[in-house]
Amino acid sequence: MTAFQDGIFAFFAAIGVVTLVWIAAGAFLHAGRPIIPDLLLVLSLRGDAPAMEQDVREIRRVLRQLPASRLILADCGLSDEARRLAEYLADREEGAELVSAEEFRLR
User: Fold this and answer.
1) Of 26, 57, 63, 80, which shows the fewest CB atoms inside 10 Å?
2) pLDDT at 34
């Protein structure tokens, strides 16, 4: 019975050591989030843009990993209803902006 208890104790001790090494390695190897200054994620939209909400949701997930980036919703001929939805999404999302195709120019 003592050997079984010693085995259980050694197992949990090994798990604890591996956990501490994992945390220490994570702290040293991932010291900060990647920052790409002035990164623009451009989503060009036209027509009814049926997948716009899903696309913005996926881009929002990417934006969490790139905190210095911004989302540009480029209106390249949206329908009136889709434009209202794009305006709503741009207002709701932090760092998002809706622009027309004529306004959007890279410098």
Assistant:
1) 80
2) 60
For residue 103 the two structure tokens come to 């306004």
The Cα 76–Cα 103 span in angstroms is: 11
CB of 93 within 8 A of CB of 64? no
Domain boundaries, the chain: 1-32, 40-100
pTM: 0.62
The CA distance from 74 to 36, in Å, is: 21
